[in-house]
Amino acid sequence: MPSTRSASSPVPVSETGTGALRAAMARERAEDISRLLRVVSEPTRLQLLSLIFQAPDGRARVVDLTAALRLRQPTISHHLKLMDEAGIVAREPIGREVWYSIVPGRLEAIGDLLR
Question: What is the pTM (predicted TM-score) of this model?
Answer without folding.
Answer: 0.72
